[in-house]
Hints:
Layout: E1 3-11, E2 20-25, H1 33-43, E3 48-52, E4 59-64, E5 69-70, H2 74-86, E6 96-103, E7 106-114, E8 120-125, E9 130-134, H3 137-143, E10 158-161, E11 165-170, H4 174-178, H5 184-194, E12 198-203, E13 214-219, E14 224-227, H6 231-243, E15 251-256, E16 264-273, E17 276-284, E18 286-295
Helix pairs in contact: 2-6
Amino acid sequence: MAEYQIKIVDAFTTERFAGNPCGVVTRADGLDDAQMQRIAREMNLSETAFVFPSKVATFKVRFFTPRAEIPLAGHPTIATMHALAEEGRIDLSGGSTRVTQELKAGVLPVDLARDADGLVRVTMTQAKPTFGAILERKPLAEALGLELADLRADVPPQVVSTGTQQAMVPLVSLDALRRVRPNLSRLGELESANGYFGTHVFALEAIQAPHRAHSRHFSAKGGIAEDPVTGSATGGMSAYLWKHGLLREPRYSVEQGHPIGRPGVVGVEVEADGAEPTTVRIAGNAITVLRGAIEA
């Protein structure tokens, strides 16, 4: 039995108990897969991150939901890099820096910058967007507790990945988004049948200006009833919006988490070659709300 330092960091916010909480074990050397999965289940957050030394990057990071490991995760990256900078393991004496993280999805860069108020903003480059299966609208509408007319008819639901396969489901309005009442069992069946990990539902309306969209996220496979503010899914959504011509702006922000009392904001950057998005970055701040130790 060994003891490991662990933090809970709220990502995509500068306010405690908002945004998306993530468990971060900043020195995970010695933990095996089963132990990490048990710790993630014990934390019972949407993800817990584990940091290791890497031979090919600045850090190696692995992400676990309460039920499974995933290859890439957005809000845990924001939380992890915040935690490492807080510990002085990322040098921000010059005001900004770039590090790399070795993930199951590959080696990807992360940029950090400290502003005049001392806040650290983390910008994560995600894997190159890929577009998968077109999904049927009616089964998704039923699983989300919506009418078929609540889903946009001009563009299809589709599986998109910037490191993790997720379903993108565009709705007609913010009102429809508020009325989502998911049947997680049915969503889980659709996830398994179509080979994706979570369901990202969004509308091109926002509660607060100047944000450009509002979203909600569910993952039966990951054991997540509703994920407050999602970075990887926001990346996939941004690629989807660009490809389908719904939002072709290189920089903007989106909001999430308000229906469950954990509001957060995700910054988005998109690069593209015509209609094809080539690079997606997501950005945000974070704040540590708990420091402790766990035995494993």
